[in-house]
UniProtKB/TrEMBL annotation:
Native species: Camellia sinensis var. sinensis (China tea)
MF terms in GO: metal ion binding
Keyword DNA-binding applies: no
Transmembrane segment boundaries: none
InterPro entries: DIOX_N (IPR026992), IPNS-like_sf (IPR027443), Iron_ascorbate_oxido_reductase (IPR050231)
Protein name as it appears in the record: Non-haem dioxygenase N-terminal domain-containing protein
Short name of one Pfam family: DIOX_N
Swiss-Prot/TrEMBL keywords: Iron, Metal-binding
Non-haem dioxygenase N-terminal domain boundaries: 50-153
Length: 174
């Protein structure tokens, strides 16, 4: 089975599917990003809530619950993961700090067309008829290199908080 990075290398994205649109610099939303609602609503909103997965539960069942949540919802919430709330607040602050940067500065850490990590639009964007109104930052392993590109003189705080979150989860991973 191929790794994710091998798959990305064999299916590189075009730059217009990587670079997020800087909506602050546009007078109106371009057609490439204009989504319309369907004329009829055959799929009413679900009455269920996003799945919540408790890591203190049965570990044998956890993998199955995650798989089901991914297949049905594409998202889930994890509770009792062991990451202290103060650390979660710090990672949220650093994330806001990253996305508050000017577009030109964020592009210093742009994900390559065949890459897995860095700044850009979600890799699922090419599967949709219109371009996404989103931006993202993916980190697998240490984000130190990207942090240095974003904040050449002040990268350690971002890197440290990311490392602290990773280290806080190690006992649960192993």
């Amino acid at each position: 089975m191929n790794s994710i990075s091998e798959s990305f290398k064999s299916h590189p994205l075009h730059l217009n599917h990587i670079i997020p649109l800087d909506f602050n610099s546009l007078p109106k939303v371009p057609d490439s990003h204009t989504w319309t609602l369907p004329k009829s609503n055959h799929n009413p909103l679900p009455t269920e809530s996003i799945p919540i997965i408790d890591l203190l539960g049965d570990s044998k069942n956890t993998n199955e619950l995650i798989q089901q949540a991914c297949e049905k919802w594409g998202v889930f919430q994890i509770i009792n993961h062991g990451v202290p709330i103060t650390l979660l607040y710090q990672i949220e602050h650093q994330t806001r700090r990253l996305f508050a940067l000017p577009a030109k500065q964020k592009l210093r850490a742009m994900r390559s067309p065949d890459g897995l990590t860095g700044y850009g639009v979600a890799r699922i964007a090419p599967f949709f008829p219109k371009l996404m109104w989103s931006e993202g930052f993916s980190a697998v392993g240490s984000p130190e290199e990207h942090a240095r590109q974003l904040w050449p003189h002040d990268y350690t705080t971002f890197w440290y908080v990311h490392a602290a979150v990773t280290l806080s989860m190690l006992p649960d991973i192993f």
